[in-house]
Write a structure and sequence with these properties.
With about 350 residues, the protein is mainly β. The chain has a single domain, classed as Neuraminidase (6 Propeller). About 10% of the residues lie in helices and about 40% in strands. It contains two helices and 27 strands. The strands form seven sheets. The chain has a five-stranded antiparallel sheet with strand order 1-2-27-26-25, with no helix packed on it. Strands 3-4-5-6 form a four-stranded antiparallel sheet, with no helix packed on it. Helix 1 packs across helix 2. It is globular, with a radius of gyration of 22 Å. The N and C termini lie far apart (about 70 Å). The N terminus is likely disordered. Keywords: Repeat. InterPro entries: 6-blade_b-propeller_TolB-like, NHL_repeat, TRIM-NHL_E3_ligases. One of its GO terms (biological process) is protein polyubiquitination. It holds the Pfam family DUF5128. It comes from Geobacter metallireducens.
Length: about 350
Amino acid sequence: MKAVLRLWSRRIIPWLLVVLCLSGCAGLGVEPLPLRDPSVDLAWPPPPNQPRVRFLREIAGPGQIVPQQGRLGQLWQMVTGEERVSIPFLTPYGIAGDGGSFLCAADSSARVVQCYDLNRREVHYLYQTGGGPLASPVGVAFDADGNVLVSDSVNAGVYVFSPQGQYLRQLGEGEVTFQRPAGIAVAGNGDVYVVDVLAHKLKRFDRRGRYLGDFPREGSGEPLSLPSNVAVDRAGDVYITDSMNFTVKKYDRDGNYLRSFGEIGDGPGSFARPRGVAVDSDLHVYVVDATFDNFQIFDQDGKLLLFVGKHGRGPGEFYLPSGIYIDKQDRIFVADTFNKRILIFEYLGQGKQ
């Protein structure tokens, strides 16, 4: 009799749980993460002005992504011994998405990149390269094949992972030496731009990872001074946060200087600690400033249109923000670094009021 019970516990129960999960869980499905918090009604500029940017919600870590386990999931965990790992945000910095439901945030203090599938409500982590663990991931982007690019400022490398989190290779290995890689951006044609802070330059690669040379073109405008972040618009023009010149510079795809946005100062339209940069569907330029605890929006002539945020911990407030990413639906994702969260907004263009 005891032998029969052991056989039941070791073989029959796990198979029964699998059958139950396949028959029950699959039918129920998982609702995608709602990207708007209905309890918060916040927009910029405030009434009676026409709103242009609306607050959607915050993501304070994987606990808000993965749905709570039901009894069946808890029973499965008890039998199999499998546990969900949940790593909280410490200092999220770089942030990027694949244009669909995937979102990744580089956390330099936690030494991981958190990757979320917002539709399937799943989380996985990038932390191990071919040569060892990540030391200080700061930049993140998705390449033309959906792979995740991660820059590590301490290891001085840029690493490529599959969408499922498998380590693939190191960008430019044996050919390119980085001093302190930071922001990463991918153009529509698949070209990859990586900021090298201490080299005061960007490194440019094609979609196959072949090194194309430094960027921008030598002698084109004032030299960069400790650049930190980069974005590319739909026309292929490149925007670089030039930190110690307190501006964002725009170049064409050939590296020719076009214009600058902002200047050093303490008023609207100026910068103190410019960080992340992004461009929306109407080619407005968004620049995060860690000192002002906001992001500012410029038109293509460099005119300030709007600034969003202030110091604080509430909705639409920041504490030393860093990275910014805008998806194809004009949703704006900002790494609110010292509040340990991601804040999500939406640009309200024509037809989105």
